[in-house]
Each structure stands twice: as C-alpha cells, then as structure tokens.
C-alpha cells in the first residue's frame, strides 16, 4: 500500500483545508531522527508496544519528542502506520496526543509526537512511578474527565467518527501538568456516516475488551465505553484490569469491585496509596460509572458524553437511576461479572475468533 496515496487524492479546496489543519506537523528526515535519538540508543528507549519501540529524543531547537519506530516492515504494519498518521493528522483536542510529524524513508516508518514528561497513566498506577504516589485524588479526577473528553471528541466531533479500540492505561499519557493525552489511534477504525457498527478483526488488550467485541468482533463506540469503564475502576482502585489470584484463577476488576459496591464498601475499593485522602462522592461516581460502562450488555452502557457529565456530577437524576440498576442489588448482582473473565479464560478462543472474523471484515450499515 502506498502511504502517500492517503494524501494525494484530494481536490484543491480539500488540500487547502488539510494544509490548514496539518500546519502544525511536518515530515522529518531519518537523519534528523537519528540525531535526535542518539541513533535510537537503547538508553533513549521509553518502552515497546505492538507497533514497535518508542524513543525519547531532542530536536535541534531543544524541544523533546517521542519517536515510535515501526518494528517489522510489512503491508499490514504499513497499513497501521498509514491509519495512525491519517487519523492523528485529523484530530486536534486538548486531551488527545497530537502528531508532530512522521518519517517514511525506505523501509523505515516513524511517527513523531510531543514527549509527555509524566509518561503514561500505567507507569503511575502499576509501573516505575507507582511508588512515588504522584497521583492524588484531584489529579485522578482530572485525568478521568480529561480522557473521557478526548474520547467524546473521537466519537462525536471528529469527522468521520472514530472508535479508538485500544483505550487502556498505557495509552493515556500525562503532560507536565498531569493533563491526560489519549494516544494511539493506530488501532482505530473510522466509522462511515450512517453505520452503527463495524465488523472487524479483534484488536485491543485483554481485560479491556467488551465481551461482544471479543467474541463477535462487533466494534462500536460502546466498546470504547466498556474499556473506559475498566480504566475508571483502575484509576479509583489502583488495581490491574485482571488480577492473578493463583496459578489457575484470575479475577477481573469488575468481578472484584461489583460485590463491594453492592455492599456500599467504597472505602475498600479506593487505592490504598491515597491513604484515605479522596472525595467520597467523587469516588462513588467514578466507581459506579466505571461499572455501568463495563456492563456486559452494550445497550446498558452510557455514551461518552453522558460519562463526562456523570463524572462531573452534572446528571444527578441519571446517576440515581444507574445506582438503582439491578446490577447493584445485593445478592442478585449481575451485568459485568463475566466480561473480562470470558476474554481472559478464552485466550485461544479470542485469537481463533480473530482469524475467523478477519475473513469477513466489512462495514455493517
Ligand atoms: N509521547 C510519549 N511520551 C512519553 N511516553 C510515551 C509516548 N508515547 C508512548 N510512550 C510510552 O512508550 C511505551 C510504549 O508505547 P506504545 O504505545 O508503543 O505501547 P503500549 O501503549 O504499551 O501498547 P500498544 O502497542 O498496545 O499501544 C508506553 O509505556 C508509552 O506510555
Ligand atoms: Mg500505546
């Protein structure tokens, strides 16, 4: 696939419009990126994901960048690269990581972003920064609301609408003020106007996958809502989406949190690292909204616009309605108990499904 073809088939006015939107990013030369990252030195490596490694770098003007370098060159990876660049070039929002540029020389494919000095939410919740406890409650609330607003933009304001498909803690980056920047649209899928969902091969990360998506490959905005619900529970509790209890048993964060919510034991859910310093009403909102987002039935999940309002405490009646949902009734708790565990218990099933669904990749209107 010719990456340039994404940009060559536009009319003059389209081009002008694009130039206006894209004026803040540019093409980098490989030489420039080699110089910025000290030849992709191991010491500059920030981490590694599905696409390849990410390196810290500094440009000649002193500005800091993060460079994502494609691991293996293939048509599929080339496609993902093109998708990520095409999507990133379209989106501009205070809570979405914006593109600084790209490089496509020979078989090298690189994407250049602003460097986020506070790295990812994952590194603070479970990784190298977790012991420093830099995420106080107010930062967590700002991150939760900010990342929800970024996803609202993708779902409702971007044209065409975008499903992220890989909402998770490592894809929420934090700027110097701990403001959330949702990253990684390489997995995203554009939704044509009028389509309700897109049938596609399963991508994403176990523990965050909505059951209907993991099993049937049905991607829609509500899959992102599900993943975001898991992220909210993670932000509140500091727990991972899936916990290994012993060699054979795993428990999803929803299976753990739901019974506690039913019994009103919110203080047992909150991250102990907060040492009791949190706003009770806000914690309740984050946890209850997180669980309803991660409901097994997609139609029970709120939209991301509602999620933002609920988190801000602006939809009091809707919140009471959610609290009274049968899922939160003691003894008959159901709704989100088997989502993550189905995905987790059936790793093989998911990957088999992945291949199967790939065959019928098409848009369902
Ligand atoms: N702009 C950036 N600034 C700082 N750190 C970044 C930046 N972009 C990515 N990282 C970090 O680099 C690491 C690798 O990122 P990458 O997106 O490749 O993988 P991932 O998010 O772990 O998995 P996936 O491939 O599923 O997205 C992550 O820890 C991520 O937080
Ligand atoms: Mg990522």
From TrEMBL:
Organism: Lactuca sativa
Keyword line: ATP-binding, Kinase, Nucleotide-binding, Serine/threonine-protein kinase, Transferase
Residue positions binding ATP: 68
Entry's Gene Ontology molecular function annotations: ATP binding; protein kinase activity; protein serine/threonine kinase activity
Classification via InterPro entries: Kinase-like_dom_sf (IPR011009), Prot_kinase_dom (IPR000719), Protein_kinase_ATP_BS (IPR017441), Ser-Thr/Tyr_kinase_cat_dom (IPR001245), Ser/Thr_kinase_AS (IPR008271)
Domain of life: Eukaryota
Protein name, entry field: Protein kinase domain-containing protein
PROSITE patterns the UniProt entry points to: PROTEIN_KINASE_ATP (PS00107), PROTEIN_KINASE_DOM (PS50011), PROTEIN_KINASE_ST (PS00108)
Family: Belongs to the protein kinase superfamily.
Domain Protein kinase: 40-320
């Amino acid at each position: 696939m010719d990456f340039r073809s994404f940009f060559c088939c536009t009319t003059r006015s389209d081009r002008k419009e694009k130039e206006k939107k894209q004026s803040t990013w540019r093409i980098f030369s490989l030489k420039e990126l080699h110089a910025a990252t000290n030849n992709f030195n191991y010491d500059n490596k920030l981490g590694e994901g599905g696409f390849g490694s990410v390196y810290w770098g500094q440009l000649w003007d002193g500005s800091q960048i993060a460079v994502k370098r494609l691991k293996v060159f293939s048509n599929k990876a080339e496609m993902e690269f093109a998708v990520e660049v095409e999507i990133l070039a379209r989106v501009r929002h205070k809570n979405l990581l914006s593109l600084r540029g790209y490089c496509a020389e020979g078989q090298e494919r690189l994407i250049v972003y602003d460097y986020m000095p506070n790295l990812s939410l994952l590194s603070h919740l479970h990784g190298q920064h977790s012991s420093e406890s830099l995420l106080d409650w107010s930062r967590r609330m700002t991150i939760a609301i900010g990342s929800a607003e970024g996803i609202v933009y993708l779902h409702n304001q971007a044209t065409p609408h975008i499903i992220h498909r890989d909402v998770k803690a490592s894809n929420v980056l934090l700027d110097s003020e701990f403001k959330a920047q949702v990253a990684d649209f390489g997995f995203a899928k554009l939704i044509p106007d009028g389509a309700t969902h897109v049938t596609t091969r399963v991508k994403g990360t176990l523990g965050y996958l909505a059951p209907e998506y993991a099993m049937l490959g049905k991607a829609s905005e509500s899959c992102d809502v599900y993943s975001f619900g898991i992220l909210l529970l993670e932000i509140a509790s500091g727990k991972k989406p899936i916990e290994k209890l012993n060699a054979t048993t795993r428990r999803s964060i929803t299976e753990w949190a739901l019974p506690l919510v039913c019994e009103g034991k919110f203080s047992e859910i909150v991250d102990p690292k907060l040492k009791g310093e949190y706003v009770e009403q806000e914690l309740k909102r984050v946890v209850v909204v997180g669980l309803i987002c991660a409901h097994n039935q997609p139609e029970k999940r709120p939209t991301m616009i509602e999620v933002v309002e609920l988190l801000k405490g602006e939809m009091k009646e809707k919140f009471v309605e959610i609290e009274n949902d049968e899922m939160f009734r003691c003894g008959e708790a159901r709704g989100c108990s088997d989502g993550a565990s189905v995905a987790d218990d059936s790793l093989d099933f998911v990957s088999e499904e992945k291949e199967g669904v790939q065959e019928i990749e098409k848009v369902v209107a």
